[in-house]
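Each field is set out underneath.
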Amino acid sequence: MFLIYELLITDLYGCFESNLIFNIQLHPETFINMPTTFTPNGDGHNDEMPVFGWGIKELLSYQIFNRWGEKVFETTDINEGWDGNFKGVPQNSDVYAFKVRAKNWKDEEMFLEGFINLVR
């Protein structure tokens, strides 16, 4: 998709005039992106692990698993992130697997799987 903007510039007294044309190409991309590490230590920075992305219309599933395959977190709320706890107990510093399934603004399903480091 191309957008064309035309800009006419003049000075306060009309002494000069300049006409500029800008062609802007838009790429309507959608993606899911997750950081590699978070630190849920209560300092107000990086304390939760939400789903990040662009063009996400609906979060269908967001799951976190420990090294034994036990599900320690699950949500379908895009505004909810994992706080590093399971059943109210802070989990150890370790590597956790995540799975994200979402629907983009074109109603296409997107998937992302990977690993996240919890550092305390």
